[in-house]
Structures are given as C-alpha cells and as structure tokens.
Design a protein that fits this description.
Length: 279
C-alpha cells in the first residue's frame, strides 16, 4: 500500500523543487481514482457548493455538508494528504468556535488539515488551530467566500500596493504557522514573486506556472461543470457531453425495449409461465 503523505512531506517539496499536484474531490469514488493517479493533495473544497450541490456561491455551504463529503474523501484516500475547506462562518465568529469546528474535520472526517481563506487578519485563527494540533493551509488572492468584497470574480493583485499586501499576507500567514498557501487568480508574474518570497509552498490556481504546486477544481478539469469555466482552467477531459450522450442512448434503448438484452438478464431456472393468469 502507498505510503501516506504528511504535511512535512509537502513542506519539504519547496526546498526539493518538486512540484505539488492538488485536485479537489468530493466523494470516495473520485478520491480513489485521483489517489491512484498519484495526486499529492485532495482538497475537499467548498466549491462543493457550486459544482456538486447547485448553490450559486460557496457562501451557503454548511459544516454538515462539508463533513459529509470530507468523510467520503477520507474513506477513498490511501496516499494523498486530505485537506478540507472550513466553510464560510465556521472560523470567523471566534477562536473557540474555529477550533471546535477545525477539530471536527480531523476527528469526525479523518482529514489531515484544513484550509481557511484570508490574509494577515487570520493569523490568530491559524495560531489557535495549530495550538490544537490542526495543520492549516491559507488561501489569498481571489477568496470566493468574500468575493462580494473583492468586486466579483476578478484577477487580484494587479497593482504594486495590492501585490505588496498579498506578499505581506502570505508572510504573516507563514509566521502564524500555515504549511502552504493557495494563491488564486493573480497575474503570472505576481505568482512567481509571491512563490519566491514565501517561506512555505505556494499552490497556484490561475497564478501562472512558477508556483510550488497547482490546484484545479476536478469538475472543471474533467468538463463536469458547465455553468462557468474560468479561463485559467485546462480541460483534461470533456466528460459532460459523454455523460449526456450515454444517458440519451440509455433512454432510447429503454424506450425501444433494447435494454436490457439477454446478456443483462438472469436466465430462468424454472418455467414460470404457469403463473400467468390466462383468459
Ligand atoms: O473551494 C475550492 O475548490 C478551492 C480551490 C479552488 C482552491 O478553494
């Protein structure tokens, strides 16, 4: 059986110059396939809300919804590090609340770490979670839980002042004890500078090729979410049309009486025709 990756292994990758692959996962079957493919980190993203649960944003996602899916991902994973997003509202109301909710991801869902959004202002939360033995990943740049405040889904850090603030935020998060930081939707050059300045691995999404690792939403890269695909996504497969075609073919075959055929039907051990009511 594959050796389980640890937070320490992920941190060491920065000095080793070995890139870190991260994909989101929301259920055990997908987690098993991604884990078998050698993905390093499976992130139970609160993108769950949009790509699986049908919400318009990540804001309504609850603790119970995240825990339900995080449990499934943990059950399907042998090697990858399992990190779960803490949903909006589960770490902002106070440190006691944040720690109690963080503990649930470790204890009830078998996660290895949690992820929270925000910069330097989240330092106390990171410290409190770390004190409780919970490894934390940060998330700066485009932070979907507070996208309204950022003026929508827009590239972040476009000028020197906001770029400098982002670097300061990453350093403050690292000082507080995060083991890695997701940087979302920034110019490629800023992705490179943040990565060079950061003492911990930077996992980019829409942040160019020079980050220490990359993350994508698995439904985006497999063509399974058709409501919106950000321009930084590369589709490694387009499964949506294949699923629609397969379902339409099944419907036709059911309507035509072609499915199930003899191969999908159990042979009869007995002649049951005497049970038919006659005349
Ligand atoms: O929720 C999510 O899937 C994420 C990734 C986009 C990084 O936070």
């Amino acid at each position: 059986m594959a050796q389980k990756l640890t937070v320490k292994d992920i941190v060491a990758r920065k000095a080793q110059g070995k890139k870190i692959s991260v994909l989101t996962a929301y259920d055990a079957a997908m987690a098993r396939m991604l884990d078998d493919s050698g993905i390093d980190i499976l992130l139970v993203g609160d993108s769950l809300g949009m790509v699986v649960l049908g919400y318009d944003s990540t804001v309504p996602v609850t603790m119970e919804e995240m825990l339900h899916h995080a449990r499934a991902v943990s059950r399907g994973t042998a090697r990858a590090l399992v990190v779960s997003d803490m949903p909006f509202g589960s770490y902002q109301a106070g440190l006691t609340d944040a720690v109690a909710n963080g503990v649930r991801f470790m204890k009830e869902a078998g996660c290895d770490a949690v992820k929270i959004e925000g910069g330097a202002e989240m330092g106390d939360v990171v410290r409190a979670l770390n004190r409780a033995g919970i490894p934390v990943m940060g998330h700066v740049g485009l932070t979907p839980q507070t996208v309204g405040r950022l003026g929508g889904f827009k590239v972040q850090g476009r000028d020197i002042d906001s770029a400098r603030k982002m670097i300061d935020d990453v350093k403050a998060l690292a000082d507080a004890g995060v083991f890695a930081v997701v940087v979302e939707c920034v110019p490629g050059d800023l992705g490179r500078v943040v990565t060079a300045e950061a003492p911990v691995p930077i996992i980019g999404i829409g942040a160019g090729p020079d980050c220490d690792g990359q993350v994508l939403v698995v439904n985006d890269m497999l063509g399974l979410y058709d409501r919106f695909t950000p321009s930084f996504v590369k589709k490694y497969a387009d499964l949506g049309p294949l699923i629609r075609q397969a379902a339409a073919r099944y419907r036709d075959e059911v309507e035509e009486g072609v499915f199930p055929a003899a191969e999908q039907t159990f042979p009869s051990p007995t002649d049951f025709s005497s049970l038919l009511k006659r005349g």
